[in-house]
Specification:
Length: 318
């Protein structure tokens, strides 16, 4: 394919130049002027054979850069979301409106339009980031079940185990809604795993926005999904899952451990340099109302997975 395109291009060049050299009329002279760059190039190639190598490299680069063409909607990567609802009780069969409220939270949080974004302390105002990824509800698939809880071993993702197989998992984010059990709010599969189980699971009680006085509080603002989609987009826990561990992001301070509740600012880390912790980051473990930012370094990690050769390249394609 590459070869066909290249030879086609040289054929066209050959044609226009031949025309110039042989036909003597006004329009030909005009096009001769337009074609001088080609003549100059040919002279330079003769005088400097290494120029050909350099131009081939430019061609390879250009082709690769063109492969990176992303499917942008209003300038953003837009991820279609397939929501798979597994229910035994009426409460587990959450409404379309409840699901849409979750999509709305994802769009707000990943585009820095969340109402609490302005609560980010000035210490972090230089690194707080608009990730710039949008989500659109693609379809809702519902299935009745007799299971009371699904656990964390991906049974909900398998039709053979009573769950629902993912739909188009290389181009759509699959989101399972079910009772997980064991006090688990949600879990995600990181980039790199098999597409058969790719996606995010969120316990039915914690999907979307519910009242502050309801039983979902303090996980009632849809931030479980924001956190899990963060993992799905390759983000690690901010404390690096070990004491003073690394999240592989340079602009997030090191946390000695996960934070819970809504820590009073400033909360100092006990790690080297005792930095002020970024407890309001979505990748910590605080209550939903305590988390309201991603960082520029986290955005950079996310952006990388959508590039050619990256694990979520297929989600960004036209
Ligand atoms: N514990 C879950 C996880 O490790 C999610 C925590 C979400 N936190 C929240 N405030 N909703 O992935
Ligand atoms: Zn997590
Ligand atoms: Ca860090």
């Amino acid at each position: 394919m590459k070869k066909i395109c290249l030879s086609l291009a040289s054929l066209v060049l050959l044609f226009s130049c031949q025309n110039d050299d042989t036909v003597e009329n006004n329009s030909a002279r005009l096009s001769k002027r337009a074609c001088a760059s080609q003549e100059v190039l040919e002279r330079q190639l003769k005088e400097n054979p290494s120029l050909a190598i350099k131009m081939n490299q430019i061609e390879a680069f250009t082709e690769n850069a063109m492969l990176n063409q992303q499917r942008l909607v209003n300038g953003k990567i837009e991820i279609p979301v397939v929501v798979n609802v597994l229910y035994r009780t009426a409460a587990e069969n959450i409404s379309d409106a409840q699901i849409q409220s979750q999509i709305d939270v994802l769009n707000a949080d990943f585009n820095a339009t969340n109402a609490d974004y302005n609560l980010v302390p000035s210490l972090f105002s230089g690194v707080k980031a608009n990730v710039g990824i949008s989500f659109v509800l693609d379809q809702v698939i519902r299935k009745a079940t007799t299971k009371t809880s699904w656990g964390t071993r991906d049974a909900m993702k398998k039709t053979k185990q009573g769950g629902i197989n993912p739909t188009s998992p290389t181009t759509k984010l699959n989101f399972w809604v079910c009772t997980i059990g064991g006090g688990i709010l949600g879990y995600a599969q990181f980039p790199g795993g098999t597409s058969a189980t790719d996606g995010v699971v969120c316990d039915s009680k914690y999907v979307g926005v519910t009242s502050n006085s309801g039983s979902s509080y303090p996980y009632n603002l849809g931030r479980t999904a924001t956190h899990e989609v963060g993992h799905w987009l390759n983000l690690r826990h901010i404390w690096g899952d070990t004491t003073c561990g690394s999240d592989l992001v340079a602009d997030t301070p090191s946390h000695n451990a996960a934070n819970y509740g809504v820590p009073t600012y400033p909360h100092l880390s006990t790690c080297a340099g005792t930095p002020v912790e970024m407890t309001m980051n979505y990748m910590d473990y605080t209550d939903d109302r305590g988390m309201y930012m991603f960082s520029a370094g986290q955005k950079a990690r996310i952006d990388a997975i959508f590039l050619s050769g990256g694990p979520r390249f297929s989600f960004a394609q036209p």
